[in-house]
Amino acid sequence: MARFLDAVAESHADRGRIVFVCIGSDRSTGDSFGPLVGTMLEELGWPNVIGTLAQPCDAHAVEQAARRLPEDAVVIAVDACLGKPESVGSYILARGAIQPGKAIGRRLPAVGHYSIAGVVNMNGPKAYWKLQTTSLYLVMRMAREVAAAVREAWGCHAGEQRGIGRAFAISDHIIEGECFK
């Protein structure tokens, strides 16, 4: 995670051009990964965040969000996904867009120049149910790891006094492969 975001920050140092599109809903534990990351980034003082717990960028809002992105923006999409049992708690990091809603059969626009997909649970026949029954502890831990890695990569320290940042370790547990959401 840290190496991936460091490389993105090296290529795109201007925080004003970076937009985090944090996809998901506050009404589903597993799907709240994106909005939790967005909320934490907002608390860190990140200037451009779409998708927080207060204003989620869910399936109903993602198309509108994609249309209103500035043309010169560098978009980093963040979303939850389902994967193999041994991948739960890992991240799928990519240069390129993420396809939100794939696990539950939704056709939504691809989003992002870069993407961070958090594998919050294992894929299975009832993907929607898997997202609903995902461990909140796991999702919170993963969201903190992403926010801490962003803070380190771009050097935004506004949220340290709120308890976000140094107390959380950055995980480099990264997998290759397809994200199922």
Describe the structure.
A five-stranded mixed beta sheet has the order 2-1-3-5-4. It is α/β, with parallel strands linked by helices and 181 residues long. The protein contains five helices and five strands; from the N terminus they run αβαβαβββαα. Mean pLDDT is 85; it is low at 157-181. The two termini are 19 Å apart. The chain has one domain (2-162): Peptidyl-tRNA hydrolase (Rossmann fold). Helix 2 (33-43) crosses helix 5. Helix 2 (33-43) links the parallel strand 1 and strand 2 (49-50).
Which SSEs are present, and which pair or pack?
Blueprint: H1 2-11, E1 18-22, H2 33-43, E2 49-50, H3 62-67, E3 74-83, E4 91-95, E5 114-122, H4 127-132, H5 136-154
Parallel strand pairs: 1-2, 1-3, 3-5
Antiparallel strand pairs: 4-5
Helix pairs in contact: 1-5, 2-5
Protein name: Spore protease YyaC
InterPro entries: Pept_HybD-like_dom_sf, YyaC
GO molecular function, one term: peptidase activity
Widest β-sheet, arrangement of strands: 2-1-3-5-4
Q: What does the largest sheet look like?
A: 5 strands, mixed
Average pLDDT, to the nearest integer?
85
Indicate the percent of residues in helices.
Answer: 25-40%
Q: DSSP strand (E) fraction?
A: 15-25%
Shape: globular
- The CATH class assignment is Alpha Beta
Number of domains: 1
Give start-end ranges of low-pLDDT stretches: 157-181
Task: Label the CATH architecture.
Answer: 3-Layer(aba) Sandwich
Number of continuous helical runs: 5
Output the helix-strand order. HEHEHEEEHH
**Name given to the CATH homologous superfamily:** Peptidyl-tRNA hydrolase
How many strands in all? 5
Distance between the termini: 19 Å
CATH topology: Rossmann fold
Given the helix and strand composition, which structural class is it?
Answer: alpha/beta
